[in-house]
Every structure is written in C-alpha cells, then in structure tokens.
Amino acid sequence: MSSVNNRPLTAADLDAFGAELDALRARHVATLGDADARYIRKIEAAVRWIGVAGRVVLYAAAFSPLYAASLLWPLGIAGAVLLGLSKILENMELAHNVMHGQYDWMGDPSLQGKTYEWDIAGTSESWRKTHNFSHHTYTNVRGMDDDIGYGLLRIFPEQRWHPFFLMQPVIAVIFALYFQWGIAIQDLRIGRLFLGRITLRELWQQSQPVRRKVTKQLLKDYVLFPALAGPFFLTVILGNLVANGIRNVWTYVVIFCGHFTADAETFPKECVENESRGHWYLRQLRGSSNLTGGKWMHIMTGNLSHQIEHHFYPDVPANRYAAMAVEVRQICARYGQHYNTGSMARQFGQVVWRILRHSLPSKPKGKQAPLVSAPVA
C-alpha cells in the first residue's frame, strides 16, 4: 500500500472531484477535429515509412557481403532499430489508442477501434477484453484485474506469496523479452488447466484465434521477409528478432512504470460495489503512475507517459493528454490528492524494487478498507 498521505474526501468532495474531471473531458471532446485527425494520420504514415526504411536497411545489411562486408553489423543494427521503432509506434501510439476507440469519430475504416488488428502476436479481440474492459474497468482491483502481475509476478504485498515467486527476478526479465507472447496468451488463462478447471482439448479449441494470429506473425517476420533475402536470410531473421525484442522490452517498461511504482495501490473487490463516478476517478488516480519527459518521450510511449490521464479518459485521443494533464494536476492539488509522476529511471527503479522485494515472503496485510483515505460522509 502507498505511504502517500492523501486528504480525506467527503461524499460531496468526491462528487465535485468527478464533476470537474467529467467537465474537462467534455471540453476536449467538443473540440476534436482536423488537428487530431492529422496527428494520427502522421503517426500512421510514420509507422509505415520507418518500417519500410528498417526493412530496406536490413536487406542492405543482408547483401552487404557482396559489396562491403564491413557494413553488415552497422547496417544490421540500424535496420533492426528502425524496425523496432516502427513496431513501438504501431503498438503504442497507433494500435493501442485506436483500439480504445479514440478515433472512431473520424469514420475512417482503418482507424476503427472494434476492427483494427495490430502487429503483435496477440489478437486485438482478446486485448479489447483483457485490457479495454477488465483492466480499465477494474484497474488494480485484486481478483478482477489480471494485469496485476499478469499471473506471473507478485508486485504488491497484498498478493498471496508462493515459493514460485522466488524465481520472479528471472521470470521478470524473460517476461520483458517475450512480452508480446505473454499478452497473446493472457486471456487463455492457462493456469485453469493445472487447476483442473478446463481440459486440454477445450483449451486447444479456445486458443484457435491466438494460434491463427501467432502463425501469421511468425510467417511474416521469420519466413516471408527473410525469404526475400534468399541465401542471406539469416540477417533478416535476426533483425526481425531484435526489432521485436526492442518493442517487447520498451512496452514492458512503459506499462510497468504506469502501474507498479511505489505509490501505486491495489484495491479489494468491495471497493467497486456501488462505486460512484468520483470514487472511480479516485481509484484510477491511486492505481496509476505518470512519466515525465518531452514530446518524443510521450509519442514513443503512446502517451502512456500520461497514464493517469489515459485511465481517466481512455477514449479521448492521446495527443490531448499533455494539455489535459496540466488541468488534471491542478484538480488533484485542489482536492489534496497525490499526482504520481517521475522520470522513467525513478519510476522503473521502484518497479524493480517491488519485483525484488515481493519475491520474498512477507507478513500478510490486514484487510484493506475500500479507498481508506476517501470516507463517505
């Protein structure tokens, strides 16, 4: 549990808090228009052309032994980095935000939240279920938000300890490197198989969409594009592998910084019973963490550097979050609520500390009252 002291809020305070945040959203939604459309189309173009550049450079590296063998490594690294940047932009600033329905108002079939399919092993359909619905509705509610540790890690002391968690410092590193695969199988809840709640045959049937998407991704990155390089295919395979790894690690770091810092809190299931709008905003605030940085930092994180604003307004175009954050911070200050923000180094350092600390057994916490510092008058 966070050690931050937040001012206790009355029922009237909570209603006013929620009303102010609702009003902020309404003001921005009312002014959506051409500038927002141009922004996302620029991101879409950047994803496409940076990706093309990365693949062209990778092919130049692959064929470099024919004209300048010394260029193999420099070109290979440059191509992998460019392709990785394209994949980061596609996943975070384009796909993630589009799938939240942030650009449905444009009426562009390629930018519709319910039909967009992203360049990752997991299906968009499963992501919309586990992330858009479960995570954003029940943010950091134990037993309802599967993103708390993703079923692999103990990050909060309220999570029950098992000897398995002694391995989590190693598991955390592996999870970062293969993050897209963890996301791909998250909704399958494979643990049910070991608990006898589902048969292997049932799990196999339920995994069909994921298996189909995984096959498509593997063929694209590790068969089709490498085949175009002929006998020099290995360079392209390695470049794609590195690009996916860059995207996986960056996404992992950004997401973990947004939810698992020292001041982030988890909540019992009881807190969502008859939850008011103000309480919902307060829970999102207490369970989220922001990252400081400049324009490019915000773009490369998909504006999840403004995780608080994203949890408040998941369907508002993310390019608006920087402006909204100024007012959100002022509103939080007026109501005496901590606004959790810091550099990526600082926030991720806290995440690493949580992973290491809570891999070890600790005394169980007493029963946590729903939002203990927000009593209803």
UniProtKB/TrEMBL annotation:
Which superkingdom does the taxonomy of this entry point to?
Answer: Bacteria
Q: Which ranges carry the Fatty acid desaturase domain?
A: 73-341
**Key words of the record:** Membrane, Transmembrane, Transmembrane helix
Q: Which InterPro entries match?
A: FA_desaturase_dom (IPR005804), Fatty_acid_desaturase (IPR012171)
The entry lists its GO molecular-function terms as:
oxidoreductase activity, acting on paired donors, with oxidation of a pair of donors resulting in the reduction of molecular oxygen to two molecules of water
Transmembrane feature ranges: 46-65, 71-89, 164-185, 222-243
Q: What is the protein's species of origin?
A: Stenotrophomonas ginsengisoli
Upper classification of the source organism reads:
Bacteria, Pseudomonadati, Pseudomonadota, Gammaproteobacteria, Lysobacterales
Protein's name in the database = Acyl-CoA desaturase
- CDD domains from the entry? Delta6-FADS-like
Q: Which GO terms describe its cellular component?
A: membrane
Q: Which residues form a coiled coil?
A: none
